[in-house]
Amino acid sequence: MQTIDSLLSESIGECRAREAGAFDRAHGTSAGIVLFGAGGLGRKTLQGLRALGMAPVAFSDSKESLWGQSIEGIEILSPADAAARYGKTATFVVTIWAEWAGRMEEQRQRLRELGCRTVLPFTLLFWKFPDLFLPHIQVDLPSRVHEQAEDVIRCADLWTDPASQSEYLAQVRWRLFSDFEQLSPPSSDMYFPADLIDRIGLDEHCVFVDVGAYDGDTVASFVDRTRGRFRRVYAFEPDEANFAAMQKRLAEMSENVRLRITARRQAVGNQNGSMHFSEGGGTGSKVGAGAATIECVTLDSTIAETPTYMKFDIEGFEPEALAGARGIITKGGVALAVCVYHLQDHLWKLPLMIHSFNPRYRFYLRPHGQIWETVCYAIPA
User: Fold this and answer.
1) Where are the alpha helices (DSSP H) in 52-202?
2) What angle do CA 59, 61, 67 make, to 5 degrees?
3) Are residues 127 and 171 part of one domain?
4) How far, CA to CA in Å, does 32 sit from each of 52, 85, 91, 174?
5) I need a labelling partner for 337 at 20 to 30 A (CA). Which of 155, 178, 363, 373 fits?
6) 354 domain residue, yes or no
7) pLDDT digits (tens, 9 = 90+) for 282-336
8) Domain holding 184: CATH number?
9) Which of 247-259 are b and which e, b meaning 16 or more Cβ less than 10 Å from the residue's Cβ?
10) Using the 8-state DSSP alphabet, how is residue 318 labeled?
11) Domain residues for 8?
């Protein structure tokens, strides 16, 4: 069985040499690149390759409505046509990667079955040109894992159950080697995992705090899970369009439920005041960037009653929000669900941060997407 020590056994120098040469070794003598996936990631990759003078020979995409169109002069082909034209000569780089788009290995296998000889995940290409492409959400250089090896190893000792231990190793391995195959299949019960829900304590006395409430989807799931039996919900969402969508969703709930839900158009961080904010609706709105400003509050200064359960999904601003809830967490008794996939090191940084606030937690790691939607659950011992 692989251990965290064996995963980190190569030297940082060996790791840097490996990451720099991984794409070239796999690409070999292939002539040109086909980008499989014409969405946002594919377009980002196109921009980077153009800057390098390495424009791809084609796009390919499964979406039939895109076939025959082009992006900046690059034709979009069906997978079958792209394979027939370039499968034996070009490297196909998979630039489809989202929780709703299927697993990376499924995409690669599909292309292989069509006859494509060399099919690689985009991560290897991004490692080759880190100044252009990285960091890309949780994708970053493997050598940066080695730079934090002490914390990576310390965090490995926090996980309570074998499933969490195994998933942590698989996720560290993915960060080091872009190995998608050993990742666990995602589960669909995000924030309310069936095997942990009884330990969280969702009863009629529950106070739920939703940080990054988006359009109220998690609040609605919470109401369904509790069958409307709870004490209070506090939902924080800074984005104007998302907040409006949440208010519309809440308005459709019964008055008895709605009166116990407090929705606030505020960001949550480690200080009270105004923060820069990038809005625009959707799931990518982000505190700390952009031209807009938004009111920011700490949970310690805002939540008067003791929460039962707090969820954090705020596009990489989780450390600041946790710091602003240190008093609540230190006091104990509150269960936490914290997204740990927005940056490479959040996988170990955030559990260690929570542990430093309060060592009386049991930690669980559950994947609800392929790397995307990975959540650390910290439950009072």
Assistant:
1) 79-86, 104-113, 122-128, 130-133, 142-147, 149-156, 162-177, 197-200
2) 85
3) no
4) 13, 12, 6, 26
5) 178
6) yes
7) 556 667 666 788 999 999 999 989 999 999 999 999 999 999 999 999 998 999 9
8) 3.40.50.150
9) eebbeebeeebee
10) H
11) 4-140
